[in-house]
Hints:
Shape: globular
Oligomer: single chain
Number of strands: 0
Largest sheet: none
Number of domains: 1
Strand content: under 5%
Order of helices and strands: HHHHHHH
Radius of gyration: 17 Å
Amino acid sequence: MGLSEAAPPGQRSEAADRLTTLVATGLGCGYAPVAPGTVGSLLGLALYWPLARLHTTLRLAALAVLVALGTWAASHLARRLAVADPSVVVVDEVAGMWVTLLFLPLTPLTALAGFVAFRVMDVVKPFPARGLERLPGGWGIMADDLMAGIYANLVLRLVLAVLPHA
Length: 166
Protein backbone atom coordinates (compact mmCIF):
# COMPACT_ATOMS: atom_id res chain seq x y z
CA MET A 1 0.00 0.00 0.00
CA GLY A 2 1.53 3.30 -1.09
CA LEU A 3 1.22 6.65 0.65
CA SER A 4 -1.71 7.63 -1.53
CA GLU A 5 -3.48 4.39 -0.55
CA ALA A 6 -3.00 4.74 3.22
CA ALA A 7 -6.01 3.93 5.36
CA PRO A 8 -8.04 6.94 6.51
CA PRO A 9 -7.30 8.12 10.05
CA GLY A 10 -10.53 6.66 11.46
CA GLN A 11 -9.71 3.20 10.11
CA ARG A 12 -6.14 3.37 11.45
CA SER A 13 -7.54 4.27 14.87
CA GLU A 14 -10.02 1.37 14.81
CA ALA A 15 -7.27 -1.06 13.78
CA ALA A 16 -4.99 0.23 16.57
CA ASP A 17 -7.87 -0.09 19.07
CA ARG A 18 -8.49 -3.70 18.03
CA LEU A 19 -4.80 -4.60 18.17
CA THR A 20 -4.18 -2.98 21.55
CA THR A 21 -7.32 -4.57 22.98
CA LEU A 22 -6.23 -8.00 21.73
CA VAL A 23 -2.75 -7.61 23.24
CA ALA A 24 -3.81 -5.91 26.49
CA THR A 25 -6.57 -8.42 27.23
CA GLY A 26 -4.33 -11.42 26.57
CA LEU A 27 -6.18 -12.53 23.43
CA GLY A 28 -9.45 -11.87 25.24
CA CYS A 29 -8.61 -13.69 28.50
CA GLY A 30 -9.20 -10.44 30.37
CA TYR A 31 -12.91 -10.80 29.62
CA ALA A 32 -13.15 -14.00 31.69
CA PRO A 33 -16.16 -13.58 33.99
CA VAL A 34 -14.25 -14.90 37.01
CA ALA A 35 -10.61 -14.24 37.97
CA PRO A 36 -9.34 -12.70 34.71
CA GLY A 37 -5.87 -12.26 36.24
CA THR A 38 -5.67 -15.97 36.94
CA VAL A 39 -6.84 -16.76 33.41
CA GLY A 40 -4.20 -14.35 32.06
CA SER A 41 -1.56 -16.09 34.17
CA LEU A 42 -2.62 -19.45 32.71
CA LEU A 43 -2.26 -17.94 29.24
CA GLY A 44 1.22 -16.75 30.20
CA LEU A 45 2.13 -20.27 31.28
CA ALA A 46 0.74 -21.78 28.07
CA LEU A 47 2.59 -19.26 25.89
CA TYR A 48 5.84 -19.71 27.81
CA TRP A 49 5.90 -23.49 27.49
CA PRO A 50 7.14 -23.54 23.85
CA LEU A 51 9.57 -20.68 24.61
CA ALA A 52 11.25 -22.76 27.31
CA ARG A 53 12.98 -24.81 24.61
CA LEU A 54 14.60 -21.73 23.10
CA HIS A 55 17.99 -20.31 24.00
CA THR A 56 17.90 -17.91 26.95
CA THR A 57 18.76 -14.96 24.69
CA LEU A 58 15.66 -15.61 22.58
CA ARG A 59 13.48 -15.96 25.69
CA LEU A 60 14.81 -12.63 26.98
CA ALA A 61 14.15 -11.03 23.59
CA ALA A 62 10.59 -12.42 23.57
CA LEU A 63 10.06 -11.06 27.10
CA ALA A 64 11.38 -7.63 26.07
CA VAL A 65 8.99 -7.57 23.09
CA LEU A 66 6.09 -8.68 25.31
CA VAL A 67 6.85 -5.99 27.90
CA ALA A 68 7.16 -3.27 25.25
CA LEU A 69 3.97 -4.30 23.43
CA GLY A 70 2.15 -4.91 26.69
CA THR A 71 3.07 -1.51 28.10
CA TRP A 72 1.96 0.21 24.89
CA ALA A 73 -1.28 -1.79 24.67
CA ALA A 74 -2.12 -1.40 28.38
CA SER A 75 -1.53 2.36 28.18
CA HIS A 76 -3.71 2.66 25.11
CA LEU A 77 -6.59 0.60 26.51
CA ALA A 78 -6.46 2.24 29.95
CA ARG A 79 -6.59 5.67 28.31
CA ARG A 80 -9.47 4.60 26.06
CA LEU A 81 -11.44 3.17 29.00
CA ALA A 82 -10.47 6.09 31.28
CA VAL A 83 -9.45 3.62 34.03
CA ALA A 84 -5.95 3.62 35.54
CA ASP A 85 -5.63 -0.20 35.69
CA PRO A 86 -8.58 -1.91 33.99
CA SER A 87 -9.27 -5.46 35.17
CA VAL A 88 -9.56 -6.59 31.53
CA VAL A 89 -5.84 -5.87 31.04
CA VAL A 90 -4.03 -9.15 31.71
CA VAL A 91 -0.93 -8.83 29.52
CA ASP A 92 0.83 -7.89 32.76
CA GLU A 93 0.01 -11.32 34.18
CA VAL A 94 1.33 -12.97 31.03
CA ALA A 95 4.63 -11.10 31.38
CA GLY A 96 4.77 -11.77 35.13
CA MET A 97 4.43 -15.52 34.51
CA TRP A 98 7.26 -15.39 31.98
CA VAL A 99 9.51 -13.65 34.52
CA THR A 100 8.52 -16.25 37.14
CA LEU A 101 9.74 -19.11 34.94
CA LEU A 102 12.76 -17.42 33.38
CA PHE A 103 16.14 -19.18 33.91
CA LEU A 104 14.46 -22.20 35.54
CA PRO A 105 13.94 -25.74 34.25
CA LEU A 106 10.36 -26.02 33.07
CA THR A 107 8.69 -29.20 34.27
CA PRO A 108 5.04 -29.77 35.15
CA LEU A 109 5.94 -29.39 38.84
CA THR A 110 7.90 -26.14 38.40
CA ALA A 111 5.14 -24.81 36.15
CA LEU A 112 2.51 -25.51 38.82
CA ALA A 113 4.68 -24.17 41.65
CA GLY A 114 5.58 -21.10 39.57
CA PHE A 115 1.92 -20.45 38.77
CA VAL A 116 0.95 -20.63 42.45
CA ALA A 117 3.94 -18.54 43.56
CA PHE A 118 3.19 -15.87 40.97
CA ARG A 119 -0.51 -15.66 41.84
CA VAL A 120 0.35 -15.28 45.54
CA MET A 121 2.95 -12.58 44.86
CA ASP A 122 0.60 -10.81 42.45
CA VAL A 123 -2.13 -10.66 45.11
CA VAL A 124 0.14 -9.85 48.09
CA LYS A 125 2.34 -7.40 46.14
CA PRO A 126 5.29 -7.23 48.55
CA PHE A 127 7.41 -4.09 48.60
CA PRO A 128 8.11 -2.44 46.19
CA ALA A 129 5.53 -4.07 43.88
CA ARG A 130 2.54 -2.14 45.24
CA GLY A 131 4.35 1.17 44.86
CA LEU A 132 5.21 0.39 41.25
CA GLU A 133 1.50 0.52 40.42
CA ARG A 134 1.76 4.31 40.76
CA LEU A 135 4.02 4.61 37.72
CA PRO A 136 2.21 6.34 34.85
CA GLY A 137 0.05 4.48 32.33
CA GLY A 138 1.08 1.07 31.11
CA TRP A 139 4.33 1.24 33.08
CA GLY A 140 2.41 1.02 36.35
CA ILE A 141 0.13 -1.69 35.01
CA MET A 142 3.09 -3.84 33.95
CA ALA A 143 5.75 -3.06 36.59
CA ASP A 144 4.00 -4.47 39.66
CA ASP A 145 3.43 -7.81 37.93
CA LEU A 146 7.02 -7.91 36.68
CA MET A 147 8.15 -7.38 40.29
CA ALA A 148 5.73 -10.10 41.46
CA GLY A 149 7.31 -12.36 38.83
CA ILE A 150 10.78 -11.62 40.19
CA TYR A 151 9.65 -12.49 43.71
CA ALA A 152 7.93 -15.67 42.50
CA ASN A 153 11.08 -16.65 40.57
CA LEU A 154 13.17 -16.22 43.74
CA VAL A 155 10.70 -18.26 45.82
CA LEU A 156 10.72 -20.99 43.19
CA ARG A 157 14.54 -21.02 43.20
CA LEU A 158 14.49 -21.41 46.98
CA VAL A 159 12.03 -24.30 46.76
CA LEU A 160 14.15 -26.01 44.08
CA ALA A 161 17.30 -25.54 46.20
CA VAL A 162 15.64 -27.07 49.28
CA LEU A 163 13.84 -29.81 47.33
CA PRO A 164 16.26 -30.51 44.45
CA HIS A 165 14.16 -33.40 43.10
CA ALA A 166 11.10 -31.16 42.70
